[in-house]
Every structure is written in structure tokens, then in C-alpha cells.
């Protein structure tokens, strides 16, 4: 349990006993400044207003309740009323010491895995026969961190790689793959998917016979023709094996088993449309089937029509997402489904889900969340592109990261073996790219900048990875194996106290990431932890201290190392022991 929820429970009870409603929220927050205590209860003012009493008087009543019940004895050693009626809470040193000891000696740092939901996480989701672009990179990195955090907290997570593997373009792609095979091109030439797609399109636009064949292949593919299906599968397999190589390089947990592409939902689409028509949710309009949603207006201020089936019978991206929502609820028995995609798809997702609810495909309590993200920009502030304006290939981006990290690491000339050097360069290169993305609020656009992400100072992967090795080096210097440490943690110095408080807030940052899908909260937490550890280490000598103090401080250092490592791992960032 987090300190925040422990305080929530006790303050809530005290507020209720002082006259507040049963559902009153004490609004427990971590304090911004030490003089305001470790936590603050900010809920008194609104309750007092409701009750028509003076907030400071009501706050005093709450403190009296707490004193009588002795609920916070041994947890907080001072409570005070501040300003218009805030309650500042100062935690007890012994409570902090004991809690830190428990965290250090228990599995999973004492964090209970009490989440019980089945959560679908729809992420990465590249398109077949196209190169993964930077938008998919963001989805892949942020989504994978969300997967790790929710799994750590106990949820059953189902990864859904919603691959764009269906649609009219496949007639053209199959026809072009056939043409290449006839011309004896080897599959190797497909390694450049971007070029493959571009050439297929050019042929389609300029060669009428080819275009006609392409159109006939779409029809055949949709009616289950074996040859077309086999060719289609080949395209999917080639694309996904390339993507899988990227996932492995990126230390992303997706595998082939997680592919749940658009094609999966295709057989369900006629029924979706029929149900929506039968229920009167969808109507025929000029041959197409359309849903009018009053909450979405067009430029004229009239309800916006969303097409779910075209005049020619074809289905749309929206139709697929309605089916996906239904499938995730009925077939996968999920409680919550999250989609990680670009902010520009926000309206699309909202519309698909509004229709899914209107059509009764999912109940109101089924959580559908779009965890949108902004664009990745170049240093010029424009969408991230190659110098010639093309899409940046993921593989090239990662190669550049490795090249730059190699220069950086070699300039530091660390005392490592050749194998350790390779692992270190990989951890820093991939870590830097991932961490740069994870550490920014996902909804804002962010500037992709090699120099800042590979900096050893600031909220960056190299800084965090180095901070971890620094803590670990203390044990090497002391010649102590942290697993053999026993005895108590004793807190006397203010810096020890500050470190213990911060360490015990790890779980609070995880709970927030789990709720909002915002890994930057975890990055920010780890960055602050590393800073607080540095001040502790400067002020509180470890190796030269007397035996008991040394033993206690080594335990705090060990918990710091474990927290940094676990936190970075939940972000999908590798750590090394030496750098
Ligand atoms: N394939 C899509 C794209 O490249 C992203 C899919 C997101 N997921 C979803 N269920 N629509 O933009």
C-alpha cells in the first residue's frame, strides 16, 4: 500500500467522524516543500464550504479525531494546519525506517500486485508493406512501458498489435509481389518496403493492365481465394519479421503471438453494420451506410455523418475499430482497452467507440481509452524527416543511435571488457532514444535531439544509467554483497530522511502511470530519486561511517539501486553494472 492511500484512509475516516459525507475525499498530495511536511491533505476547504463551517475550525476537528483515534500514531509525528485549512503531515522517522526496511527485504520492493483487470493494450500497430515510421516508434515505446507497469501491478495484459494488414491496397501489393516474383527478384529486395510500396503504386498508376489485375485481386482476396491469401500472408510475414527485429533491438516485449491485425476483424464487419442498421443507429445515405452522431458536428454545425460501409460495399477503418472494441469485450473478456496512437486519430477513436456504445456492442462500464501522443519533431520544429524530406527508417535511426553512443562511451574510456562495452553501448543508444520519448508528457510534440538525449546531465538515459552504476559501485568499493545485509535502518540525518521518503514514493508514481499511461511521471520520479541520492551521498559518508550507520546507509543505497533498476526496467530501459 502507498503512504498516500494509507493517509487517505485515515484522514477520510477522521473527516467523516468530524461530520463530512461518507464519500468525502481528503485529497492527499505529496508536499512540494519540506516545510509543508511530507504530505498534505487539501480536501478540508471544500468539505467545510459544503458544511458551512470555518475550514480551519473543521481542520482542527479532524486533527482532534485523529488524536483520539490514535490512527496516525507511529505513522506521523506532527500534523499542522496551514493557510486557509490545509493539513500538513510530517511522517515519523521510525515509520520511514521500518517501511524502507520492509521494501528492501521483500519481493518486488513490497509493492502488492493487486490489479485484477484484463487490459488490452493496442500499440505499435504498423502497416504491412510499409516501413515503420516515427509515429509507430512512439506508440511502441510508450505502449510497451504501459504494458510492463500494468503487468507489474498484477493486471492480465493482452498485447494487441493492431497491424494495418487489410484494405484495398493489397490487390496492388499482391499484383506487384507477383510481378517481382515473375521477374525473378528475390525476397531480399523486399527488405526495402518503402521502395516496394512506392514502386507498386507507381506501376498501379501508370500501367492500366496491372491496375486491372490489382483490382481483381482485391475482390479475390476478399472472397478468400487461396492464391491471393497466400501472397497476402507472404507480405505480412516479410513485414512482421522485419518489425520483430526492430522490437528485439528496442527491447520491446512484442512477439508474433501479439499480432491482432485489422484482418482479424474483417469477417465480423457485415454483422456489425447489420446490427447498427437493425437498431436504427445507422442509415442508408446515397448508397452508403452512415451513422450520424449528434456530439460531432460538421462545419455547418450539423451532426457529422460517419460512413461505416461505402457505396461499393467496402468497410472503413472506423468499422474495424467498432468490431475491435466488441471483440475485446466479448471474446477477450477485457475490462479495459487502451489504444496508443497519434493525437490525430483522437476523433476517429472517439467516433468508433461512441458508435460501439450506441450499437450496444460494449457496455457503459467497459473502459475504452485513447492514450494519444503528439508528434516527434526535428530540431527545426517541423515533423521529423530525413534531410531530403523522406520518412526516417527505424533501423537507420537505431544504427545512428549506436554510432553516436559508441563515440560517447569510448570518449569516457570506461574500464570494461569488450563484451561489456558492446552491452553498454547498446543500453545507452537504445535507452537514450526510448528515454527521450518516455520522459516527455506523451500528449505534447517533442523535439528529437541527439545531443540532449545523449547527455550525461539532465533527465536522460545515460544520466539515469550512470546514477545506477554509481550506487552499485559503492558496494564494489565496500566489498559488500547487498544481499547479505541485515539489521535495522536508522534515520537520523535529514538527507537520510528525504531519501527514505522518496524511495517509499516509488509505488505512487507507478500507480499514476498505470492509471494515465504517462511514463514521464516514472521518469521524473527516478530522476528526482537519483538527485536526492546524490545529496544524501554527499552529506552522509557511507564507507567511513561507524558500523551501524554504515550498515543502515548501505541498506538505503541498496534500496535506491533496486528502485532505479526496477523503475528503468518498467520503462524498458536496460541497466549495466559498470560504465
Ligand atoms: N495502423 C494505424 C496507423 O498506422 C494505427 C492503429 C491504431 N490502433 C487502432 N485500433 N486503430 O496509424
Automatic annotation (TrEMBL):
Monomer. This is Arginine--tRNA ligase. Its main location: cytoplasm. It is found in: Cytoplasm. It catalyses: tRNA(Arg) + L-arginine + ATP = L-arginyl-tRNA(Arg) + AMP + diphosphate. Its EC number is 6.1.1.19. It holds the Pfam family DALR_1. GO terms for cellular component: cytoplasm. Residues 464-579 form the DALR anticodon binding domain. One of its GO terms (molecular function) is ATP binding. InterPro entries: aa-tRNA-synth_I_CS, Arg-tRNA-ligase, Arg-tRNA-synth_N, Arg-tRNA-synth_N_sf, ArgRS_core, DALR_anticod-bd, Rossmann-like_a/b/a_fold, tRNAsynth_Ia_anticodon-bd. Residues 1-91 form the Arginyl tRNA synthetase N-terminal domain. Belongs to the class-I aminoacyl-tRNA synthetase family. It comes from Moraxella caprae. It is an enzyme of class 6 (ligase). SMART domains: Arg_tRNA_synt_N, DALR_1. A motif ('HIGH' region) lies at residues 126-136. SUPFAM superfamilies: Anticodon-binding domain of a subclass of class I aminoacyl-tRNA synthetases, Arginyl-tRNA synthetase (ArgRS), N-terminal 'additional' domain, Nucleotidylyl transferase. Keywords: Aminoacyl-tRNA synthetase, ATP-binding, Cytoplasm, Ligase, Nucleotide-binding, Protein biosynthesis. GO terms for biological process: arginyl-tRNA aminoacylation.
